[in-house]
Design a protein that fits this description.
globular; alpha/beta; 6-stranded mixed β-sheet; single chain; Purple Acid Phosphatase, chain A, domain 2; 20% strand
């Protein structure tokens, strides 16, 4: 009967371990940097409208608690979060306590109450309303859609001006790796900002001239829509509000108590969502954008039941749809 001595067995184990190490090393080295697959995961929430919703603290905490469990590479709020008013500071403190990387996008309602952009930036500890950061080989451009079209313009804006456009072009040119865009107002064809086509043209020209750093996708909030549209190889993705769909005064409907309605006068003009909406996004360099969203129901009647116009109704629902999008 054939048997191994303890010394022979030890030698065989060492040889097997060396063989496994050699095979592992060969497989690892055979995957060149050009073929290595990178990925990045981030959490997205938008349009919480902290001054509007009576349960905004619960919605914010639900998102942040979920992110602490999921541990993404970073989180982003896509605007219409909170103004710098002192009474809302406790809500900003909740956001600031999140232990991971986190980023702001400036929405149009951040300046409500007579606040200026500089005050908003100081409140958020931001050096600029548009900026760039990098994670796991992916580049992220955060844009500000609140530029003035002309010096005398007042009210809400929906525009990216010449100075910011030049910054976009210069920043994109200096990058090496895939690019993702974050903005509050939409850049895509659905409800896009006033010069959305011009901005999309910048992205498309860049992709033609610099295939090593393609713009893959653009995420926005603002319209409280749930939609994804591909235009010339770039995905434009609407993230739904964490809180509600805005309908307006002619569709007023008291959905909570009279006490809540008195304290939060805008809620009656919305179709609130029972649960907060947010999403986890994973983008892989092998060509996949995976959006893991969630759905809920309206509190009270839906916009359709109240006779809200059917224009763009395909995108109006209490959900962020889970999607698997591909890019070249």
């Amino acid at each position: 009967m054939f048997s191994l001595s303890s010394s022979d067995l030890s030698l065989s184990v060492r040889r097997w371990a060396m063989l496994v190490f050699a095979v592992t090393l060969f497989v690892g080295c055979s995957q060149s940097p050009e073929t290595a697959i990178n990925s990045v995961r981030f959490g997205l929430v938008t349009d919480i409208h902290l001054p509007t919703m009576h349960d905004s603290e619960v919605r914010l905490r639900t998102f942040l608690d979920s992110m602490e469990q999921a541990k993404p590479d970073f989180i982003v709020e896509l605007g219409d979060f909170v103004t710098p008013a002192p009474q809302y500071q406790p809500l900003m403190d909740i956001w600031s306590a999140y232990p991971g990387e986190k980023y702001h996008v400036i929405g149009n309602h951040e300046m409500d109450g007579g606040y200026g952009l500089e005050q908003v930036l100081v409140h958020r500890k931001m050096a600029s309303s548009y900026y760039h950061f990098e994670k796991n080989g992916f580049h992220f451009l955060v844009l500000d859609g609140n530029d003035k079209k002309f010096p005398e313009q007042t009210g809400y804006r929906n525009y990216i001006g010449p100075e910011q456009q030049e910054w976009i072009k210069e920043t994109l040119t200096g990058l090496n790796g895939p690019v993702i865009i974050f903005s509050h107002q939409a850049i895509g064809p659905i409800g896009g900002m006033d010069n959305a086509e011009e901005i999309r043209g910048i992205f498309e020209d860049h992709n033609t001239q610099h295939p090593e750093s393609p713009v893959l996708a653009s995420f926005n909030g603002h319209l409280h829509y749930d939609a994804a549209t591909e235009v010339n190889g770039i995905w434009y993705i609407h993230m739904n509000s964490a809180s509600y769909f805005w309908m307006g005064e002619e569709y007023a409907h008291v959905r909570y108590s009279e006490e809540v309605d008195e304290g939060f006068k805008w809620i009656k003009y919305t179709a609130p969502y029972q649960d907060p909406l947010f999403a986890m996004v994973e983008i892989s360099s092998d060509g996949i954008i995976q959006i893991s969203g969630k759905g809920t129901a309206y509190v009270g009647p839906s916009p359709r039941e109240l006779g809200f116009p059917t224009t763009d109704s395909a995108y109006i629902r209490p959900a962020i749809t889970s999607r698997k999008l591909s890019f070249n």
